[in-house]
Please model this.
Amino acid sequence: MEKTKKFDFNIIFIILTFAVGLGCFIVNNNFGSGMAFVFAVVLFIVGLLLLIKGGDWFVDGATSIAEKFGIPEVIIGATVVSIGTTLPEVMVSAQAALKDNGAMSYGNAIGSIICNVSLIAAITLAVKPGKTDKKSLRLPVIFFFVAAAIYAGVAYLLGDFTRTIGIILLAIFAVYMIISVILAFKDNKKGATEEAVEDEEKEVPLPIWQAILFLILGAAIIAFGATLLVDNGTIIAHTIGVPDTVIALTFVALGTSLPELVTAITSLAKGHGALSLGNVIGANLFNLVLVCGIAITLKPFALPCDKIFMNTGLNASLVLDIPLMIAVMLILTVPALFKGKLYRWQGILLLCMYAAFCAFQFIF
Model:
């Protein structure tokens, strides 16, 4: 009964949201620029809602199908769920790249990493710091900084993200996934006894027809939501006179990071702060190797240069965005890796850095 009610509610939600989006889209083409801006804001919000719900449906459907075929839960978590929560960023950056908006692709990926660490993880740390598993963090942290070194090297030395770079990033993603699955299988064998005891408490998977429907609709809704987000984010940026990169680094990045934010809040409420940290680090790695890799491979682009750092003539991407991305990850991961513990001061410092970063984007 609960499953049926949830399904009915989701259907109503999607129909209403789609109707509002379609209505605004039609009206948007028949009114002046003033009204067009208002509807662009509405469509931007609708796009965010569709991304969130589409991602939720996709993960539910994919997880249920995987469970139907007897794939262990730990493998599902290491692959399907991790990729599913990153799908909004993937679709937004891919759509932007195909529409020759490299600034949006770049800003979405880098901005999501900064947002994930200095807002989402920071909230978790500021409210409830605690111990963490150094061993489980080692693999994604190493892969993240390897990918970040490649990304930064290309940005500073070449200035152009070529298709070869995109393929290299995707190759890193493939290697990481293979290693993760191998390690997950090993851990699953060790915990087979505990898993058998907990089987009775697991949530019953969706019927196969509903799982397939959720998978297809989820992917379609994410694609549509990403289109609304990119198109109307660009309109908003041009109307209020700020670069596309700024919109992508702030509003778009925050919007596509909402799945991680929801996971962080849920994990915190249930007393599983370490789960939130693992999700954030994994999502950040995927933002570099999967999101950027797909966008660059589809349509290579140059490093955005539409934002200057405080009238110095220096590219803000090189002076602020990339260094900040690496800095916040170091602040988050170094104490966790060496001390096996998270501290409240980390959360407070990261939140201050995020506030300063957002202020800079719109003031300078």
Observations:
- Residues 193-201 have pLDDT under 50 and may be disordered.
- Residues 33-68 form the longest helix (36 residues).
